[in-house]
C-alpha cells in the first residue's frame, strides 16, 4: 500500500511516498535517498521497484524528494549536500515517528549523491540506523565535481555565478559546500553493516568510489559487503542489472532489519 506524505524541512514542504506492507506492524523500514537531479522514483523507476520489493518482505519504505527536486518545495539552485543532509534527517525523524514503523529497525539506502547523503546521516545517527545500502554512491564529492572547474563549466561559473547542467541551474553554493566533506571517511566508524554496490561501467561516478568506501571501512568494526556488477551503468539501466540490484538489496535488508 502506498500513501502520499508531506513533512516540513525548514521552510520547505517535502513530498514523498510511504510504502506500507500488509503484514504485521510495526514494520521495519528503509529510507531511500535519490541522486543529484533525480527524484523519488529514480531512473527507470528503480526506487519504485525497490520499495515494492521491500513490501514483499514486510518492510516499509519512504521515497521522498529533496527540497528543490521532484515535487518538493524549494529551488534546485539552492541545493547543497548540507541541505540534503538536513532533509534526509527530517525524513528519518518522520519515519521513526510513524505508528506503522518500528523505530528500532530502520535502514537507509542512497544512490549516487544520495548515497553520500545517506552515508553522512548514518555516520551522525549510528544508533538509529540498522543498516546502510549504497548504490553507485559518491565517496569523495569534491573529487567527483572537480570536472566543473574546467572547460565550459568554469566559464559559466565565472560569467553567471551558476552552472547550466542539462537544464538544471547549479548554484555556486553547491560547489563550495562539498569542500571538506568526505562521506567515506565519516562512515568508517559506523558499527552497523554496509552494502556497497557499483557498476563497473559507471561513467558518472567511477567504481573507484566503491573501493574508497571499502578502504575507509577497513579501519572500523562494522561489516562491509562490496559488490561490483559487471558492465552495469550508473543507474543499472538494464533488466538484468536491475534484478541483480534488487536481489542484493533484498538479501541485505532481509538479513539486517
Give me the secondary-structure topology.
Elements: E1 2-9, E2 12-19, E3 27-33, H1 46-56, E4 59-64, H2 81-97, E5 101-111, H3 113-124, E6 131-135, H4 141-144, H5 151-160, E7 162-165, E8 168-171, H6 172-178, H7 183-187, E9 194-199, H8 208-217, E10 224-229, H9 239-256
Parallel strand pairs: 3-4, 3-5, 5-6, 6-9, 9-10
Antiparallel strand pairs: 1-2, 2-4, 7-8
Walk me through this protein's architecture:
With 257 residues, the chain is of the alpha/beta class. The chain has a single domain (2-141, 182-256), classed as Alpha/Beta hydrolase fold, catalytic domain (Rossmann fold), CATH 3.40.50. 37% of the residues lie in helices and 25% in strands. It has 9 helices and 10 strands. An 8-stranded mixed beta sheet has the order 1-2-4-3-5-6-9-10, sandwiched between helices. The protein has a two-stranded antiparallel sheet with strand order 7-8. Helix 1 (46-56) packs across helix 9 (239-256) and helix 2 (81-97) crosses helix 3. The relative contact order is 0.15.
CATH arch. level architecture: 3-Layer(aba) Sandwich
Whole-number mean pLDDT: 94
Portion in strands: 25-35%
Largest beta sheet: what is the strand line-up?
1-2-4-3-5-6-9-10
Assembly context of the chains:
single chain
Tally of structural domains: 1
Radius of gyration: 17 Å
Low-confidence stretches: none
- Would you give the CATH topology? Rossmann fold
Specify the CATH homologous superfamily: Alpha/Beta hydrolase fold, catalytic domain
Just give the CATH class: Alpha Beta
| Structural class label | alpha/beta
Strand/helix succession: EEEHEHEHEHHEEHHEHEH
Q: Helicity range of the residues? A: 25-40%
Amino acid at each position: 500500500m502506498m500513501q502520499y506524505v508531506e513533512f516540513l524541512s525548514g521552510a520547505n514542504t517535502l513530498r514523498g511516498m510511504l510504502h506500507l506492507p500488509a503484514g504485521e506492524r510495526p514494520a521495519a523500514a528503509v529510507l531511500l535517498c535519490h541522486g543529484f537531479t533525480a527524484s523519488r522514483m529514480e531512473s527507470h523507476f528503480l526506487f519504485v521497484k525497490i520499495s515494492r520489493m521491500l513490501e514483499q518482505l514486510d518492510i516499509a519504505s519512504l521515497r521522498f524528494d529533496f527540497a528543490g527536486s521532484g515535487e518538493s518545495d524549494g529551488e534546485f539552485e539552492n541545493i547543497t549536500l548540507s541541505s540534503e543532509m538536513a532533509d534526509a534527517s527530517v525524513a528519518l525523524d518522520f519515519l521513526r515517528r510513524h505508528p506503522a514503523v518500528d523505530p528500532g529497525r530502520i535502514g537507509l539506502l542512497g544512490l549516487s549523491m544520495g548515497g553520500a547523503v545517506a552515508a553522512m546521516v548514518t555516520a551522525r545517527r549510528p544508533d538509529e540506523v540498522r543498516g546502510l545500502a549504497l548504490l553507485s554512491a559518491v565517496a569523495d564529492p569534491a573529487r567527483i565535481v572537480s570536472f566543473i572547474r574546467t572547460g565550459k563549466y568554469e566559464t559559466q561559473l565565472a560569467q553567471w555565478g551558476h552552472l547550466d547542467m542539462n537544464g538544471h541551474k547549479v548554484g555556486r553554493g553547491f560547489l563550495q559546500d562539498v569542500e571538506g566533506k568526505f562521506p567515506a571517511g565519516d562512515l568508517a566508524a559506523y558499527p552497523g553493516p554496509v552494502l556497497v554496490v557499483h557498476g563497473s561501467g559507471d561513467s558518472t561516478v567511477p567504481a573507484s568510489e566503491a573501493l574508497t568506501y571499502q578502504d575507509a571501512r577497513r579501519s572500523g568494526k562494522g561489516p562491509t559487503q562490496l559488490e561490483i556488477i559487471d558492465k552495469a551503468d550508473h543507474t543499472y539501466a538494464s533488466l538484468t542489472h536491475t534484478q541483480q540490484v534488487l536481489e542484493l538489496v533484498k538479501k541485505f535488508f532481509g538479513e539486517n532489519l
